[in-house]
Amino acid sequence: MSKVFIVGGSGRVATELIKDLVAAGNEVVAGARHPEKIVKLNGVTPVALDLHGDVAKIASLMAGRNAVYFVAGSRGKDLLQTDAMGAVKTMQAASRAGIKRYIMLSSMYALEPEKWADYPALASITDYNIAKFFADNYLIKSTDLDYTIIQPAVLTEEAGTGKVNFGPGDETTNPIPDAAQVLANVLNADNTIGKVIMMRTGDTPIKDAIKAL
Predict the structure, then answer these.
(1) What burial class does residue 117 get, using C-beta atoms within 10 Å of its C-beta: 0-12 exposed, 13-18 middle, 19+ buried?
(2) Distance between CA atoms of 70 and 6, rounded to whole angstroms?
(3) Residues 159 and 180: beta-carbon distance below 8 Å
(4) What's the DSSP call for residue 83?
(5) pLDDT averaged per 10 residues, the chain (length 213)
(6) Alpha-carbon distance 115 to 118, whole Å?
(7) Residues 6+ apart with CB under 8 A from 75
């Protein structure tokens, strides 16, 4: 069992992720600006988390956890302080709290800005991808965290298929339940540490795709 802290605990991905983590026997503390919106399940503790706050406060909320997920997103409303600097603060907080494992939800090709204009679905979220470009680069180059970065295609509110393809490709969508399941399954997959994993709808069962990395 892992003791997990989730940043952005009231969001669409977080809701599915929390369900998956709890089903796997993990203990979850989920932070959100509106903790009353976090899914109510046994094994889940909601806490108020403001990414505009200071690193010390965020670190205190993470105390006692052994992994952090960043799945927060402002949906274009607060890109600098939430999606970019908010992410950086949580990395700094994790280090301050003595937590090594850090799993980031990012965006397809976030580290390859030359690709964004090639795909209309990505071009339409350029500002979000800019925020993710800086957050992902900080995680890789400016921390010593045991990171995994998941870069899904555009997330859709469709039923999950339980199947994905990893790596570059032209498919530009991902059902939210599949993205959440990948996030949950990489938690204890040491072969994903230090990796950036691009992901999209595909034909490989999620567990097999992770094992093959």
Answers:
(1) exposed
(2) 6
(3) no
(4) I
(5) 94 97 97 96 97 97 97 88 97 98 96 92 91 98 98 93 91 91 98 97 96 95
(6) 5
(7) none
